[in-house]
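Fold it.
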Amino acid sequence: ELHLLSGVPMLNTPAAMRGMITAPHHLAAEAGLRILREGGNAVEAMVAAAATIAVVYPHMNAVGGDGFWLIAEPGQAPVGIDAAGCSAGMATPDYYVSAGLGSIPARGPKAALNVGGTIAGWAKALQTTKGKLPLSRILEDAVYYAQNGVPVTQGQEDLTTEKLGELKDVPGFAGQYLVAGQAPKAGMIL
């Protein structure tokens, strides 16, 4: 039997009996799977994975963005959550003109594209289901990696190096994500 996953032929379709989760970083997937195996529901597992990915994969995911949820429980109407933040109140055309800017900067403190809704989306999603686990357990893996560090991936090294010119002077960036002013190397603990 041959199946396709994103256009790539697979010999076997992935299947599991004790839960399955996917994420762009294995530590985030592990965090979500641990929640499922401890009796948590899919929403709790997703929040655990999302919180963990913000820590272990910071060059691609963060808590400052948006979230969009579609939660479907058997026998209930689906719930949609739009956790997109609104535009920052002071991000008006007049503000940017008075600052001498012809457009909104793509990065930095004046790049006020919107106020992130991610965390509010997690809270709303957790409220919609009858979860069993406390928030402290759901966030446990993310907190662990934030406190103890995580190995830098090659992708993080490459992207940080590529964007260094744009990011190095953003307040807080260098102290959090650079080592001696340079992108951390793959395998280093950040």
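The chain has a mean pLDDT of 88.
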